[in-house]
Amino acid sequence: MDNNIMQTEAPKMPEYRPQTDEKAIKINLKIPWTTIIIIVAVIVVVLLVYLGRGLVIAATVNGSPISRSAVIQQLEKSYGKTTLDSMITEKLVNDAARAKHIVITNDVINAEIKTTEDQVKAKYGTLAAALAANGMTMNDLKANIILHKEMEQLVADKLNVTDQEIAQYIKDNKVSVPKGQEATINAQIKTQLQASKLNDAGNAMVSALRSQAKIHYFGNY
Question: Are 146 and 109 in contact (CB under 8 A)?
């Protein structure tokens, strides 16, 4: 008997794979449009609240918010009337200047900015620091300059100061005028008297403009 025995492997049975109905196991992944819209809306609201929270909330105290609207309401109670009156005055003066074709040029504005900058250097160091300390911006300063210059031109005929008025001021206020400084002192007094006249004439003009204008208030201050 031959010792070499041929060993043969048993034939492999084919792997059983049951037939399935593809339509039966297909998962429907289609999401209704209403659900998508809701999801997007929620995301947008969350983003707006997170990114724009400074527009809605002014501060939080121990997690409790103080809304910007509450701050605005308090400011309106305290300063609303004064602020609104100032805005009305500015509008009336601007309109009056426009009616008389008065235009304040950039050269005039820049010259006034330079003068203001020189005046505040000693106290604030820079114009930017002075504006910040007074809660103003450069645009606020420019608007004030334009308003002031418009008023000057609108009441220019009432700002003349005579030598007699200067002499009377020196006498009434017992101003000491050092010898050789007469011209300087007189110029300073003239500027001061012109400022006073501008204030009086400006107030009278604004009162007249307000009496002639149609102003309607839509809030109580």
Answer: yes
